[in-house]
Amino acid sequence: MRGELMLKETDVAENQSQKSSIIDRIWSGLASIKLAVIVFALISLTSIVGTLLEQNGDPEKNLKVIAKFVGTSAAPKVFAMLDGLGFTDMYHAWWFVALLYLFAANLIVCSLERLPNIWKLVRQPIQALPADRVSAMPVRREVLLKSDRDSAASAVQAALRSGGFQPAQAETDGMVQFYAEKGRYSRLGVYMTHLSIIIILVGAIVGMKYGFNAHLNLLEGTTSAVAYFGEGKEIPLGFELRCDDFSVDFYDTSDTPKSYKSWLTVLENGTPVAIDGKTTTEIEVNRPLRHKGVTFYQSSYGYAPNRDSLFKFVLTGRNGQKESVSLKFGDAFTIPGTTVQGVVADFSPAIAVDQSNRLFTYAESMNNPAVFVEFSEQGKPKYKQWILKRYPETWAFPDGTVEFQDLWGSQYTGLQVRKDPGVGIVYAGCLLMSIGLYIAFFTSHARVWVLLREERGTTRVMIAGSSSKNRVAFEGNIERLTQAMSAKEAV
Amino acid sequence: MDSSLFFGLSSIAYILAMICYIAYLAFRTPMVGLIATVITVFGFVSHTLAFFIRWKEFADFGGMGIMRAIPLTNLYESLIFFAWCIILGYLFIEWKYKNRSFGAFITPIAGMIMAFIDISGISKDIHPLVPALQSNWLLAHVTMSFLAYAAFAISFSTAIMYLALSTDESRRTSWPYLFWTISLGMFAAVLIAMGLDFLSFKIIGKGPESFIKNYLFKASFRSESVVVIALSYAALAAFVFVVWRFGSTLKRAIGAFSLDADVLDELTYKCIAVGFPVFTLGGLIFGAIWADQAWGRYWSWDPKETWSLITWFVYAFFLHARHMRGWRGDKTAAVAVVGFVSTIFTYLGVNLLLSGLHSYGGM
Ligand code: HEM
């Protein structure tokens, strides 16, 4: 069996010895397994260098890495050389891309060269064989059935059927012969796998040609019609995107973010567009927003305080009356049902207490936002207090509760903006690869031939066959078939 | 109920099982063999229980869905799962091939990993997941990657055993003999160096967080002191030399285990034939889908991805060499060894030595 899988190096050699045209020569070069080995090795080795150097990274850092290998004195020269060869952005370097194309060409030509043979094997149904060929099969068993040929034949047929085969019948050399096969298409698994690699590469190329990868920082309450890539180059989105709100949740009292969410609205000609039935879409990491082929991923966030930000409070009076208010820095609010007034006098995005009980701001993002509110009644100062968004125990006052909900308009959401028309192709390739690998590794093409020879009222049965892979399992199957034949005959 | 209790039980069970497997190989008493298997199964059940208890602890702690809470978010947890996969694979092979000889090799590896985790005290602290890791694809991606790694680990040990068995000490300069003794010598030396790191770190007593990344090889190859570095390399060379000089002892030991070279060759292939599709689907494809959802890029050539690709190429090369060129024995075994070195680098080296997007496993 292995023989038919081996690459026909001789064919290649013959091709070359004929006075061949350039195209033939290139073709046979691309069909050679040697090229595959070289390309595999080159891609792997250069990639290793690429993982050692930080791609598009800080030259200083890379210099340090190189110094570890070649020493500080030689490092600048080696760095300049590697940089010149494109190793600092190597996955986009022309020679790396060329290697990938060569790999693809090699794979295509290699598969095309062998496809006709395999296709014949797949298309050509199994045929009856002369007895000597059958008895030369790699896997063989014999049993003696104690009945005449006709009833033995029906036992054999029944056993083959129960083994999943659809036997055909023939008369050869005066003997009855049954032959059957299953899993013929298993031989195509390899080609599906190879094809899938090509499809994935095509998808990647489509993505690079017709798509983009950009980013957009959007302050709460603002709208943008463009995204940015590289050093601020603008890419029109074809519609507008507004960030309605942004929020981060933390684990308990820690600074480990549990989730961050943005509420986004898509606008076309100034009017909100419904997506999945809603005009505002909540996105978080792993749950992006898609519109017109553009996908917005939650990727980061930040804090940018400004004059227009609004403090949002939910006020509850002692009588249980509730009220939501939004106000700017310095504006006053009144606790419902009272004449107590509050004014925001200070704000910290991330407040903490140091060892000597002093308050300080420990981060430049809204990790633990707090407002300092001064309360007064009829112009007379009453009390003042820090109100922390994440600590409800700081919300309570003698005259009611003041829940600090948000400083809206001071955080921006960091969005990764991507358009990639090739993703579908890549996923289709991945699906095909999964199916192809499954077929290539876990199915096989099995063929059996059964010869029946009558000997004085009994019938001698020879079962023989071959399988494209996993010979041990196939032998087990043949054994079971043999036993089934004896069993079927007994009834 | 605490998961660490069961993790402790299983590590003891694996060590006991190793003793029984060795006794079984020495005395060939079927009863001892059976006891070895029973102890291994016991350890495995306890290991499985512990894994699920920890899963539940994690889910309760983080207050996230059960699917999101698989305890595979840092190096130690992934090592636990890795050991679990190895034992699973081993028990399958024992059942399928009716051969207990590997037990003596596999159980101590699992036992050592478990013991390492136990002393390091990691099983008690649970870290919540940052948003990027909260994806159902993570479950599929990580579990399948580790199943594949375990299959590759087994293929590595069978390949080394194959090479040890099939090479001859009278030809110590033949490439297969040189190859396997040097590989095994370096592999063992690196493990010992990591053990030294671990000991020195225990003495210094820093928290496990800072451990691996900063301390890797600090007690040996990356020491502050030039003398220690020189000594380390000398020890490495001496170690490799000893393995090279006395490799035939290992050969006799394996021979005594009544493993035959063909079975080992076949097992190496089988493990890769199972590991390769699982790695392709779980490691590469599911990883790409996850990255696509989390970052908007299915492939960004970060070091972890690139190393996965290199590993994938090596095993693809293995399969092609075997199927198309009919390579058998020494040559394919050597490729399997290279494949596992690449696997280890993908799993540990990238996190410990290189940096990347994947906070996962970086602790
Ligand atoms: C990394 C990329 C590749 C992957 C994942 C891959 C995958 C596979 C798989 C799974 C098989 C089946 C092996 C088996 O049954 O165990 C196979 C066979 C084969 N591959 Fe590849 N392959 C790749 C690249 C290549 C390249 C570049 C060439 C061309 C030189 C090539 C030529 C072949 C041939 C000729 C066969 C045998 C087909 C047959 O049975 O008729 N492959 N490949």
Salient structural properties:
heterodimer; A: 491 residues; alpha+beta; Alpha-D-Glucose-1,6-Bisphosphate, Chain A, domain 4; Tick-borne Encephalitis virus Glycoprotein, domain 1; 4 domains; five-stranded antiparallel β-sheet; 24 strands; elongated; disordered N terminus; B: 363 residues; mainly alpha; globular; disordered C terminus; binds protoporphyrin IX containing FE
Give a brief outline of the structure:
The complex is a heterodimer of chains A (491) and B (363). By secondary structure, chain A is of the alpha+beta class. Chain A is built from twelve helices and 24 strands.
Describe how the helices and strands are arranged.
The complex is a heterodimer of chains A (491) and B (363).
Chain A: H1 2-5, H2 9-17, H3 22-30, H4 33-52, H5 59-70, H6 75-84, H7 94-123, H8 131-134, E1 139-145, H9 149-162, E2 168-172, E3 175-182, H10 189-210, E4 212-219, E5 223-229, E6 233-250, E7 257-268, E8 271-273, E9 280-284, E10 289-291, E11 294-303, E12 310-317, E13 322-327, E14 332-334, E15 340-348, E16 351-353, E17 359-361, E18 370-377, E19 380-388, E20 396-397, E21 400-408, E22 411-419, H11 423-442, E23 446-455, E24 458-467, H12 471-490
Antiparallel strand pairs in A: 1-24, 2-3, 3-23, 4-22, 5-6, 6-7, 7-8, 7-9, 10-11, 11-22, 12-13, 12-21, 14-15, 15-18, 16-17, 18-19, 20-21, 23-24
Chain B: H1 3-27, H2 30-62, H3 75-97, H4 103-120, H5 136-166, H6 175-204, H7 208-215, H8 226-245, H9 247-256, H10 261-295, H11 303-324, H12 330-353
Helix pairs in contact in B: 1-2, 1-4, 2-3, 3-4, 3-5, 5-9, 5-10, 5-12, 6-8, 6-12, 10-11, 11-12
The complex binds protoporphyrin IX containing FE (HEM).
